[in-house]
Amino acid sequence: MIKYNRILLKLSGESLAGATKQGIDTLRLEEYATQIKQIADIGVQIGVVIGGGNIFRGLSGATKGFDRVQGDQMGMLATVINSLALNSALQANGTKSRVLTSVRMEPVGEYYSKRYAVECLERGEVVIIAGGTSNPYFTTDTASALRAIEIEADVMLKGTRVDGVYTADPEKDPTAVKFDEITYDEVYNRNLKVMDLTATTMCKENSMPIYVFDMDTVGNLKKVVMGENIGTLVKN
User: Fold this and answer.
1) pLDDT per residue over 66-105, tens digit each?
2) What is the pTM of this model?
3) Banded model confidence at residue 61, pLDDT cuts 50, 70, 90
4) Of 161, 188, 231, which is closest to residue 17 (Cα–Cα)?
5) DSSP-derived 3-state class of residue 214
6) Domains and CATH numbers, the chain
7) Strands of the sheet with 126-130, listed across from one edge
């Protein structure tokens, strides 16, 4: 049985870079497209938001002299590049998909609206929503939270290179312990970095659960939507 019928999948730009550490790793891109196809083929409705950190990150650019607003706009364009790459990979493996952008840039992508996005989802298309929120000072985590709430997803899936939420960074602290389930209040109290504070608060206030899992292991996405406990569920 499918546990989640409509999802918003948040993918990291850094993860998309794979072993190259920057730009787009075509092998990782194909792996992501394969995993998305696996769940699209069983009827899951899929919205996707991808970060742009493998190309440009506005906040880090601001520390090096870039104007913050223009830096964030560059970051938004980076998410469009990643979205187009994923769209191309999906179409190459026979998956129906399209790119919607939060700022007008036809013919690169169609302009996003909730109504149109839901129509596409209900037709069985993977909808990749690019351009962040279209506003500076907001991360793609916040964009993901916003889009998940707008399209009325059952869950927001945060695909990372770590297999869940831990008491500390497991890549730095070998004694860190993984949570199978945790509340938003506990995330706040423990100061855990699941997502940025704005995104976490939006999900809490709108009762949107987040499931954090390792997306870099092929097959994990299907395991999550089928209800297998391989990550961490964050909820009220």
Assistant:
1) 788 998 999 999 999 999 999 999 999 999 999 999 999 9
2) 0.94
3) low
4) 161
5) strand
6) 6-235 (3.40.1160.10)
7) 110-111, 97-101, 126-130, 45-50, 6-11, 155-160, 210-214, 232-235, 181-183
